[in-house]
Amino acid sequence: MNASEFARECFRSVTLYDPDVAPCEVDLSDNTNLWGTPPAAQRAILTAGPEIVARYPTPYTSDLKEKISAYVQVEASMVVTGCGSDDVLDSAIRAFGNPGDRVAIPEPSFGMIPVFARMNGLEPVFISLGRDGSLNPSAFQAADARITYLCSPNNPTGVSLRQTDIDEIISNARGPVIVDQAYAEFSERSLTELAKKHDNVLITRTMSKAFGLAGLRIGYGIGSPALVREVEKSRGPYKTNALAARAAIAALDEDLPWVARHVSEVKTNRARFITGLEKLGLDPYPTDANFVLVPVSDAKQVGGLMRTRGVAVRVFDDLAGAGGAFRITIGPWEMMDRCLISLAECIG
Q1: Which phi-psi region, left, alpha or beta, contains residue 158 (left: φ > 0; alpha: ψ -120 to 50)?
Q2: Whole-number Å distance between alpha carbons of 153 and 157
Q3: What is the pLDDT of residues 250-286, one digit of tens each?
Q4: For 258-267, how does the pLDDT look when each residue is reduced to its tens digit (9 = 90+)?
Q5: Angle in degrees, 0-180, between the axes of helices 84-96 and 112-119, rounded to the nearest 10
Q6: Residue 57: in which H helix or E strand, if any?
Q7: What is the rounded distance in angstroms from the CA atom of residue 302 to the CA atom of residue 324?
Q8: Same domain as 246, residue 266
């Protein structure tokens, strides 16, 4: 018997996540903080005693939830943490969906959501997203999905969804609505109030982007106490490691000015970089995130040529609504200038 036959039926169409992670001098491919890690978080890791590593962390990171709740201005009972926001998203889909249920997903959007749906025995249903961030609320309602997933600013387009569309979808949803705000710090709009207003809304966020803690995998969800309790059951205890929680608490206590300073620099460099792209004759999407999506002819070939010049971007061969495209993380200007030079050489 083939060992793969032991797998659950819903796993057979799932493949391992396989990004191109070959080292590159200027890596603009993963939307992380290219200024590094904030200083207090680094100190918290370096000064941790052996007992921090030798003992289990608290089961549900109550100390970290208190700090996050103060940061997003909700009660601690409205917060659930996880091993990155991926963990929270996966746990929520598992908590709220029965096998065979549908998950409504904008297209294009975060590529792991259909994977999480299939892994949990649910069926992803894709609904086209406008380049301007417009959704079709009627199409979401017609999908008759048990779970609805939205992402604002959206990954990989960077576009913020229209508030009126989000409100209409929430009002007509027959089950939970998950709103992924991994890039909230780089936009002008937090959607946390939706979790206070609606019992069926879960907002997910992360400390991998603006906070520079991607390697520590700290994510969290915000929702009604009853909603997050179900996610916490699904997630299980001890999923946030003690060093990561210690660093995240230090960052929330002491590093907010550092975060704000680099978010501001992202916004400045983002506008400057978009101007540079337009001067090359390219037509980038509008963005509220720490990255820019830009359609590029022969994206795979051009991306390969850029790698030979020491610049890595995230390449999409055939992205819904865009075709070939690059998703390019915004970092210090020296890196962005190097990217523009490489692009000019490779598309010229």
Answers
A1: left
A2: 8
A3: 999 999 999 999 999 999 999 999 999 999 999 999 9
A4: 999 999 999 9
A5: 40
A6: none
A7: 10
A8: no
10 Cβ neighbours under 8 A, 6+ residues apart: 99, 118, 119, 120, 121
Please report which residue ranges of 73-185 form alpha helices under DSSP H: 84-96, 112-119, 137-142, 163-172
pLDDT digits (tens, 9 = 90+) for 50-66: 999 999 999 999 999 99
With 0.90 as the threshold, say if the pTM is over it: yes
Joined tokens for residue 68: 């996050």
Full domain range(s) for residue 304: 3-36+257-347
Amino acid, single-letter form, for residue 64:
L
CATH number for position 266: 3.90.1150.10
Tokens representing 143 are 């999908």
Structure tokens given for 243:
């060093």
Cα torsion 159, 143, 14, 82 to 10°: value is 60
What is the bridge-based pairing of β-strands 311-319 and 323-329? Answer: antiparallel
Same domain, 275 and 164: no
Tokens of 8: 């659950």
Structure tokens at 54: 């030798």
